[in-house]
Design brief:
Pfam families: Fer4_22 (PF17179)
Shape: globular
Protein name: Anaerobic sulfite reductase subunit A
Organism: Peptacetobacter hominis
Distance between the termini: 59 Å
Number of domains: 2
Low-confidence stretches: none
Number of helices: 11
Helix content: 25-40%
GO molecular function: iron-sulfur cluster binding; metal ion binding
Keywords: Iron, Iron-sulfur, Metal-binding
């Protein structure tokens, strides 16, 4: 069922769900960007509709709500261990179509890849998703090529005309019961989607592990500085490492944390005895790219990458992931010709 609400009405809706849910959405953090005079768009708690940024792509994804950058799993001492507390409320997350598809990738990795990850699943419970309509394609987006530009797997969708009016398509009974009290007038509403990006990618139909032998990866040995930013903004990267924090010198009390990790940074593939599987940055780039568009697809039937373009946005060396994908066809031909 669709609704047209003004700012006051939608704020009433936010207030009506605030006792059960925290609301997370892209918001502007002034002077929080990479430079002192720039802002940052990332996810945070909001209370009013005016706090939500609709006309810009978020620099970071929704991922950190379900996978905190640093997450305490449990506390320990000589005498006991205590599991860390979790959220007391549910969560309502505003996100775009590409990120809604990314959620499926996270669920596959943490819920369907062997036994469920307990710490992910307990945060994943009692969450509702609000799809933000896309009126235009943003810089570096290539969601159309990745078939993630549309989605109907939402509880609520929202569009704005940027004149104080908001258009909602509701699929959730609880939300609908609250919206009916605020605005009895309903109308047909469907979310906005983009069907054309300025950037297009083409993944070779017969892409195989042969492409690992291409010389194309060598250029990233010098171009990439292994900062890991591309992994941290990516909504589908799921790697982490463990860290024990000790409260005393005897090391018998403290906490265990799960911390984001990156396949692009030094130390990620270190093993006992001083070995390292991928020392060169080009080798790390090769691993990342092929994991997103080859390995994961062979296992799950669709690509891991959702085409949000955040990796291109954030890279300080202007390395384009989409451009790298488009080089794969030529790279595969090169390898096959050399066989």
């Amino acid at each position: 069922m669709g609704y047209k609400l003004n700012s006051n009405e939608i704020n009433k809706f936010f207030e009506s769900i605030s006792d059960k849910y925290d609301i997370y959405a892209p918001k502007c953090f002034e002077h929080g960007g990479r430079f002192s005079d720039t802002d940052c768009i990332r996810y945070g708690k909001v209370k009013t509709i005016d706090e939500i940024v609709f006309d810009r792509k978020s620099d970071f994804s929704f991922k950190e709500i379900l996978l905190p950058v640093s997450q305490t799993l449990f506390f320990f001492s000589e005498e006991f261990t205590k599991e860390s507390d979790t959220r007391t409320k549910g969560a309502v997350i505003f996100l775009r179509s590409c990120d809604l598809h990314a959620l499926k990738r996270l669920d596959d990795m943490y819920l369907n890849n062997g036994p469920k990850d307990y710490y992910y699943s307990r945060l994943r419970e009692n969450i509702k998703f609000v799809l933000i309509g896309c009126h235009k394609s943003f810089d570096n987006c290539f969601c159309v090529s990745m078939n993630t530009n549309t989605s109907d797997n939402y509880d609520l969708s929202i569009d704005t005309d940027f004149n104080g009016n908001y258009y909602l398509d509701c699929k959730d009974k609880y939300f609908e019961s609250l919206l009916m009290k605020i605005n009895h007038f309903s109308q047909d509403v469907s979310p906005s989607f983009v069907y054309e990006n300025s950037i297009n990618v083409s993944i070779p139909e017969k892409l195989s592990s042969k492409v690992t032998n291409s010389s194309m990866w060598n250029e990233y040995d010098s171009r990439c500085i292994n900062c890991g930013r591309c992994n941290f903004v990516c909504p589908t990267c799921t790697c982490f490492t463990m860290q024990d924090i000790f409260y005393s010198e005897n090391g018998k009390s403290g906490e265990r944390r799960r911390i984001w990790a990156s396949c692009m940074v030094d130390g990620f593939t270190d093993v006992a005895g001083g070995g390292n599987y991928r020392k060169k940055n080009g080798e790390r780039m090769r691993f990342k790219v092929l994991h997103k568009v080859l390995d994961y697809r062979e296992r799950n039937g669709y690509n891991m990458c959702v085409g949000c373009g955040r990796c291109d946005d954030i890279c300080p060396e202007y390395i384009s992931f989409s451009n790298c994908i488009n080089k794969l066809e030529k790279a595969l031909e090169e390898v096959e010709n050399n066989d």
